[in-house]
Structures are given as C-alpha cells and as structure tokens.
Design goal:
- The protein is an alpha+beta fold.
- The protein has three domains: about 5-90, Rossmann fold (3-Layer(aba) Sandwich); about 120-180, Dna Ligase, domain 1, CATH 3.30.1490; about 185-365, D-amino Acid Aminotransferase, Chain A, domain 1.
- Helices cover about 30% and strands about 30% of the residues.
- It has helices at about 15-25, 55-65, 75-85, 95-100, 100-110, 125-135, 160-170, 225-240, 275, 280-290, 350-365, and strands at about 5-10, 30-35, 45-50, 65-70, 90, 120, 140-145, 155, 175-180, 185-190, 200, 205-210, 210-220, 245-255, 255-265, 305-310, 325-330, 340-345.
- The strands form three sheets. Strands 10, 11, 12, 13, 14, 15, 16, 17 and 18 form a nine-stranded antiparallel β-sheet that branches.
- Strand 10 (about 185-190) and strand 11 form a beta hairpin.
- It binds adenosine-5'-triphosphate and magnesium ion (MG).
- Adenosine-5'-triphosphate (ATP) binds near residues 117, 140, 148 and 179.
C-alpha cells in the first residue's frame, strides 16, 4: 500500500465528507464523484461532478484511486462494476445490488435462517390484496428500490383503500411487510477487513420520527440481545465476504429480534463513534478497505448519544461550547426533512448523558 493512498468515494454527501475528515489525519487523500455540483463533500476536497453513467469521468476517477467506496447505496451498480474493473472497490458491487433491493435483501436474510417479519413481493393489485390480507391489513408497503428515510413507503391499515392506493402507485415493484410491534429499534455496526477480521460497536438504540432517524443512544442499555444481534450481523458479513462497515437495522420485540434492513456503508446510527468510540466508524471503514488492522471499537467514555439536525441547525448552535457536546454541521442548505448536521454527546454516566441530550433537544423547539 502506498504511503498516502487515495480513496475515491462515489457520492458526495455528508458520509463522504466525514470519511475524508477522519482520513486526512492519517495521510489519506480523497476524491469524490457526484452528479451535483453542490454536494457537501466538495467543501472538504476535490469533487468530480459527472453523471454515474459518464464512463470517461469514471475512468479518470478510478485511475487515481487506490480503492473506491460509497457514500450511499443507490449508486448505480453499473458504475460500481465499471470501477471494479479498474481498481479495488469495497464493498463489492454484488453487495450493492442486494442492498438496493428490499426483496433481495430479505431473501438473503431468510436464506441465512435469520429472523425477518412476514413479507410479500407485490407487483400487481391482486398481489397487494393478497399480501395485505396475509398481514392482517397492518403493514408497510415499500418500493423495492430507491427508498430512504422512510420515502417510498405507504402504511397499510384496515382503513387503507387498496384500490385507490394502487391507482396512485401502479407500475412499480414493492414489498409489503407486516408491521412489527417493536419495543425498540437497534442497529449493529460491524467492520470487516480484507483479511476477514471483524469487530462490532456497542449495540445502538435508534429513535425515528416520520421514518427519519432522530436520535441514537449507545449502548442500547435495555436490550438483552446484543450477542444475538452481533451473531446475525456476523453471519451476513461473512456470507457477503464483506469489506468495510456494514450496518444491520433490527426491531426488538417481546419475541426477540427481527431484521429490518442493511446498509452497506457507514451509517447515521454510527455518527456518535467520532467522539464516542476509540476508533470512529469512518476511520474503521477506511482501515478495513486498506487492509489495516481494525481499530478498537470500544467506547471512549461509558455512554454516547447522537442527535440529528433535520431541516435546520439551531441558530444558537455555535454560541456556546460545553464539555462532552460536539457539533457537526455539513454545510448543506436548509430543507425540510434533510439531515443538515448532528450533535454527539459523550458522558461517563447515564444521568449526565440524559441531561445533555435533553438540553440539546430543547434547542429543537426554542431555536
Ligand atoms: P432509512 O434510510 O432511514 O433506514 P428506509 O427508507 O430505508 O429508512 P426503513 O428503515 O425500512 O426505511 O423504515 C423507516 C422506519 O419506519 C423504520 O426505522 C421504522 O421506524 C418504521 N418501519 C419500517 N418498516 C416497519 C415495519 N415492518 N414495522 C414497523 N415499523 C416499521
Ligand atoms: Mg432504515
């Protein structure tokens, strides 16, 4: 490996930005590829602005990189495969292909004998009627591809007029999932390097509002299922010969865990690790791809939390600075429903963590 490797990132959002910010102190160099000129990773490094189908630009990009990774999983697989013929790319484009399709993803979990809630492929009105009945008219109809932050989802209840709904969305491919009555949502962040070594971060507890992650608490203190969750994640990572950070989102119920979905990349529920862990998910993703030893995933203090700033950053964000509270502002324009930054809290006891989180949460309503 070169002394100062260059890492390419397909997609130039905040994940690419944070990967670079964590990689620069290690001497790594970065180049980002994104179709939009104002992609926020461009604020911290060189951004190639071109469509994912532009092979001349992709060729130029791939040639310069020691390895390439992704900022989001909806990068066209064809672009990832094109790059894979020219340089290393992690995770493998085949993983991307599975993660882009909710049906393929769930079939993978099933093939590994892992617990998933009832689900049905829906490509026609009659399949929708059948699937809804099978799920007792209590489910989530989700587009198979291109969904994120709860977008492309329709809640199905006894009150839903299926005919009217199908009239609005006809033409797509969907999965109807049974609604899971969960006690909490958790995620496992696993890192696997090119040699197959693996480490896990503490189980994260995640809270969502309108389908968007708002808060992560670590460790998920009330969960009894950490080991089981790690075991599920290990099976998936091994099966995929995965390299990098992989995140598995799960629902915890009275009957145990059910797997919701996976993200083949660094993840919003791992942002706390920048200050809350010995090695952040971003550094570890890069270390894994470069074949280095995975850094310790232990927490830097006993507890950590992450609060997402959605739509806007509170006006008074930078006016005070307090021990154990950190601000990350991505430099994106405000927009409803958009992640524009996050705060991390670290504390050595649960009470202190709670106090700081409440203080931050108040800014949401007072700014
Ligand atoms: P993201 O990109 O934020 O992970 P997404 O668009 O991929 O979101 P999901 O994670 O599948 O979508 O769903 C978003 C949220 O909606 C979940 O975190 C959960 O709160 C709720 N949800 C989704 N599916 C179900 C389900 N089958 N049962 C209960 N709640 C669900
Ligand atoms: Mg999700």
């Amino acid at each position: 490996m070169k002394k100062f490797p260059t890492i390419g990132i397909l997609g130039g959002g905040q994940l690419a930005q944070m990967l670079a910010l964590e990689g620069y102190p290690l001497g790594f160099r970065f180049v980002f590829f994104d179709p939009t000129a104002d992609a926020c990773a461009g604020l911290v490094g060189e951004l190639i602005v071109a469509d994912y189908g532009n092979e001349i630009a992709l060729e130029e990009f791939a040639k310069r990189c020691d390895f390439v990774t992704y900022d989001f999983e909806n990068v066209p697989v064809s672009a990832a495969e094109f790059v894979a013929k020219r340089t290393s790319i992690f995770p493998h484009p085949k993983v991307l292909e599975i993660a882009q399709d909710r049906l393929k993803e769930k079939l993978l979990f099933k093939s590994l004998d892992l617990p998933v809630g009832q689900f049905h492929a829906v490509d026609s009105y009659s399949e929708l009627v059948f699937a809804s009945k099978s799920c007792n008219q209590d489910g989530f109809l989700k587009t198979r591809t291109l969904g994120y932050d709860g977008k492309g989802q329709h809640r199905i209840t006894i009150k839903t007029d299926l005919k009217e709904l199908w009239g609005k969305i006809d033409g797509g491919s969907f999965v109807l999932e049974q609604a899971i009555k969960f006690k909490r949502e958790v995620s496992v962040i696993v890192v696997r390097n090119t040699q197959g070594d693996m480490r896990f971060y503490n189980l994260c507890e995640n809270k969502h509002k309108l389908g968007i992650l708002t808060t992560t608490l670590v460790p998920a203190v009330k969960s009894e299922y950490s080991d089981r969750a790690f075991d599920y994640a290990k099976k998936i990572a091994d099966k995929l010969s995965y390299v990098g950070v992989l995140v598995i989102e799960m629902f915890e119920t009275d009957l145990g865990l059910f797997i919701n979905e996976m993200a083949p990349r660094v993840h919003n529920s791992g942002h706390w690790s920048i200050e809350g862990a010995v090695t952040s998910q971003f550094e570890n993703h890069l270390r894994a791809g470069l074949g280095f030893e995975i850094g310790s995933t232990e927490m830097s203090q006993g507890f950590s939390a992450m609060i997402n700033w959605i739509g806007e950053i509170p006006n008074i964000a930078l006016s005070t600075k307090e021990k154990g509270i950190y601000w990350h502002i991505y430099g994106k324009e405000n927009r409803q429903g958009r992640n524009v930054g996050h705060s991390t809290v670290v504390a050595d006891n649960a009470q202190d963590l709670h106090t700081k989180v409440v203080k931050l949460a108040k800014l949401l309503t007072t700014s």
